[in-house]
Amino acid sequence: MDSLTVQIIVTVLVGLAYAVGLSGIVVPVLPGTITIVIASLVWAIVIGGWTGWVMFSIVLLLGAIGMTTSYVLTGRRLHAAEVPMWPIYVAIASGIVGIFVIPFVGLPLGFLLGLYICEALRQQDWRKGFTSAWIAMKALGTGILIEFSLAMLSTITFAVAVLVHFVTA
Questions:
Q1: pTM, whole model, 2 decimals?
Q2: pLDDT digit string, tens, across residues 49-95
Q3: How many other CB atoms are there within 10 angstroms of residue 161's CB atom?
Q4: Per-residue pLDDT reduced to its tens digit, 9-35
Q5: Which of 37, 33, 11 is nearest to 24 (CA)?
Q6: How many CA atoms are closer than 13 Å to the CA of 57, on its beta-carbon side?
Q7: CB under 8 Å to 30, separation ≥6 — which residues?
Q8: At what angle do helices 126-168 and 106-123 cross, to 10 degrees?
Q9: What is the pLDDT of residue 29?
């Protein structure tokens, strides 16, 4: 197999890994930003040259900013609202169970229901539980939106790098 064929195959596989990574940011069961960064590293190693390494550096920077911002912002909002992390973990587990119980919509429904029930039981008030769960959902949604936006910028960076590499090769 010649070098160009290997480069094309690796590029297609990395593109698929990007799709998995983007999905993983929205669906927390799959690895998200980490998948994108590792796929970019693999592409840079296989392709070599300045295009691959510049692309990897940009993607690594965007990934680090996205993950850090997402966790810090979400953590601050949850801490300010006095929502502990264990209801979030229970909600994620409920979402995973929900996938198998109700296909397609089970993940978000299971997550929301698990978060609401945990918060209502923790606060011993169904209304306060709803308010607390709503704050947690907004915080998590904001974090996901930021991380997904930066992952999309990483995807665009990868696409430009692929174009530059194969046009100039």
A1: 0.79
A2: 899 999 999 999 999 999 888 778 877 887 787 778 888 888 888 88
A3: 24
A4: 999 999 999 999 999 888 766 788 999
A5: 33
A6: 7
A7: 20, 21, 23, 24
A8: 140
A9: 67
Which pLDDT score is estimated for 30?
A: 73
Residue 169 carries which DSSP code? -
Q: Which amino acid is at 139?
A: A
Residue 149 CB contacts under 8 Å (≥ 6 apart), including other chains: 66
Q: How many residues does the chain have?
A: 169
Pick from 43, 20, 42, 24: nearest CA to 32: 24
User: Which position has the token pair 């692929």?
Assistant: 162
Please check the confidence at residue 40 and state whether its pLDDT lies above 90: yes
User: What's the first-to-final CA gap in the chain, in angstroms?
Assistant: 17
- Work out whether the CA dihedral 74, 79, 84, 87 comes out positive or negative: negative
Query: Do 95 and 114 meet the contact criterion of CB atoms below 8 Å apart?
Result: yes
Cα 36 to Cα 19, 99, 157, 158: the distances in Å are 9, 24, 11, 10
Kindly state the tokens that stand for 41.
């590293």
Q: Please indicate whether residue 35 or residue 169 has the higher confidence score (pLDDT).
A: 35
